[in-house]
Amino acid sequence: MSLRPQQSIPPVPDDTARVARAAFRRGNPYVLLRDRLGAVFDDAGFADLYPALGQPAYAPWRLALVTLMQFREGLSDRQAAEAVRGRIDWKHLLALDLADAGFDHSVLCEFRARLLQHQATQRLLERVLDAARAGGLLKARGRQRTDSTHVLAAIRTLNRLELVGETLRAALNAIAVVTPDWLRSIAPPDWHERYDRRVEDMRLPETGPKRDAHFIQVGADGFLLLDALDGAGAPPGVAALPAVAVLRRVWARHFERDEGSTGGGAPAGVRLRAVQGRGPGDRIESPYDTEARFRAKSGTSWTGYTAHTIRTQSTIRLQKALAPRRRAAQWDDVADLQAVLVDDDALDDELQDRLPLGERGLVQPAAHAFAERGQVAQDLLGLGAPAA
Questions:
Q1: For strand 143-152 and strand 367-370, is the pairing parallel, antiparallel, or unpaired?
Q2: Among 166, 215, 245, 284, which is 20 to 30 Å from 378 by CA?
């Protein structure tokens, strides 16, 4: 794909504008956004993301707007592409003809990949803030509200027995790639039967003594492997593999053995630790995504991440002509801007590291209203008590 930037952003077609105003007589956020801020983005702001040669790409300024609207409404790529084809308010914002067929949904995924590849994701927020300031919608002395939403991890939810078994299997696979001969020399024959297949493809004991015995056997196998990795005959660098580090953390949380016990291939001396619950902490939920955590908020629980968002509210004055039977009037309206600041592991005590807006001078709020009561976060940000 190559980019051929448009010299100027096209205006909204007359038919599209006429139909949009007839359909939304009481106003529409996207129609208002186009009327107040214009197109917000332009192709020149994304020119460095595309090569000089290749098939012409779809206009990135339109894809940037669709990406923001898609996030605002929680739409999939297919649903967003359908909205471009069928919704008059989207066509008005994107300056498309009524008969425009839009684009294939895969274009959105490719556009996001370009933003990630070139570390250009922050451009969307910066350009929206610049346009809002230029249009007089965002001023210093406004209010900010920090909130968080849950993001599911792309992993399978594992119970305790599945977690320890799959963690050991993942470590064995990582070691087998680096030093297969050494692993073959220390692995007992029955390890192939226990760890050749993924845990979800096995029939694990559900309850009773058989389940307890399987727990202890897996724990003993893990200790046997760790002892071999710590021994003098272990190949250099194998003990430093990430999968081995995960194995150590999981075993330290779920297993313990009697002092002086060295494993020796037998489960004697290995015990399962008491259940420590699923509250916030360092509990690994999957060996394949070590940053995912079990979280709970407002009655909702999930395994994944916390995405912190900032919503900036700035009071503006709009002059609107009302219907003929009503007089023209002025009133205060609120410009609502929202941006995702982080999509990785974001704990509440790290919130001060996730707020680059104030440090970079993009927003200078007079008060910061928190969706959750967090005096620690307020103190860290130096914002004092939230506004009423």
A1: parallel
A2: 284
Q: How far apart are CA 146 and CA 199, in angstroms?
A: 40
Structure confidence at residue 152 (pLDDT): 82
pLDDT at 127: 87
pLDDT for the residue 371: 36
Tokens of 18: 């006429």
How far apart (Å, rounded) are the C-alpha atoms in residues 347 and 307? 9
CA-based nearest residue to 345, from 82, 150, 195, 168: 150
The whole-angstrom separation of Cα 113 and Cα 120 is: 10
Residue carrying the six token digits 């929680």: 74
Q: Each residue of 235-254: b (16+ CB within 10 Å) or e?
A: eeebbebebbebbeebbebb
Q: Are strands 367-370 and 270-272 parallel, antiparallel or unpaired?
A: unpaired
Q: Minimal CA–CA distance to 63: which of 24, 18, 22, 93?
A: 93
Q: What is the DSSP letter of 353?
A: G
- Identify the CA nearest to 128 among candidates 21, 36, 23, 193: 36
Give the pLDDT confidence score for residue 344 in this predicted structure: 32
The helix (run of H) or strand (run of E) holding residue 171 is helix 160-178
Q: Find how far residue 54's CA is from the centre of its chain.
A: 31
For residues 135 and 130, give the distance between their C-alpha atoms in angstroms, rounded to a whole number. Answer: 9
- Under DSSP, the state recorded for 298 is T
Query: What pLDDT is attached to residue 355?
Result: 42
Q: Which amino acid is at 1?
A: M
Nearest to 143 by CA among 350, 343, 374, 358: 358
Q: Give residue 241's pLDDT.
A: 92
Per-residue pLDDT tens over the stretch 166-225: 999 999 999 999 999 999 999 998 898 888 888 878 788 877 888 888 888 999 999 999
Intervals of the chain under pLDDT 50: 263-266, 279-280, 314-388
pLDDT of residue 267: 54
Nearest 5°: CA angle at 332, between 329 and 337? 135
Summarised one tens digit per residue, pLDDT across range 128-166 is 888 888 887 776 656 666 667 778 888 788 888 888 899
What one-character-per-residue DSSP string does 63-105 give?
A: HHHHHHHHHHHT--HHHHHHHHHH-HHHHHHHT--TT-----T
* Token pair belonging to 288: 């394949």
